[in-house]
Amino acid sequence: MDKLLNKKVVILGLCLLIIAGIVVVLFRGFNVNFLLEQHEVIEFVIGKDFEMKDVRDICNEVFKDKKIVLKTVEVFDDAVSINASSITNEEKENLVKKLNEKFGTTKTVDEVTIETVANVRMRDWIKPYVQPIAISAVIILAYIAARFREENLFKLLAKIIGIILVTILALLSIFAIFRVPMSPIYIMGLTAVALIELMVYINTYEKKEEK
Fold this sequence. Notes:
By secondary structure, the chain is α+β, with helices and mostly antiparallel strands. It has helices at 2-28, 52-63, 89-103, 122-147, 153-177, 184-210; strands at 39-45, 68-73, 79-84, 115-117. A 4-stranded antiparallel beta sheet has the order 2-3-1-4, covered by helices on one side. A hairpin with a 5-residue loop joins strand 2 (68-73) and strand 3 (79-84). The longest helix is centred in the first third of the chain and has 27 residues, at 2-28.
């Protein structure tokens, strides 16, 4: 009785979680990684070793509350890529002036350009994973069909797919609700979770058959 009650509570909790996730996605969408959204970038060559903290302090002073992401570039890590949601000409002038003062460089405002990076659509960075996932799914389904041919195959596959689908939807709902920045690495993670869950289920089912 207790197990049945606990199972119902878990199912209800998952249903509520998925519904909440769907509502968040409908009204706010997923929180996409900043570097995958449309933004502007400035690359500034310092020409020597530098502390990223110094650059960040200057950027915080120039861009105020704007979201920024800093990355080292060039072979010798002697340049910095400054990514911001937007960069005005006034901000660029102020940035170049402060970086020159801090690192002893002599860059002019005209030498430093603002590049616009277009947003990357989610379907574009999901696309490379579709083919390998599909191939893996076909191989696994073929194994299940051969291994459990005496079982009600349709019922077994429906149960396995249902369990995996609920798990993926629950994880995506958590990402949406807690505004976790989505990126291609999460697609790999979700795929890994699905494969692990599938292997665990098959292993458990095989052990039940042996008994």
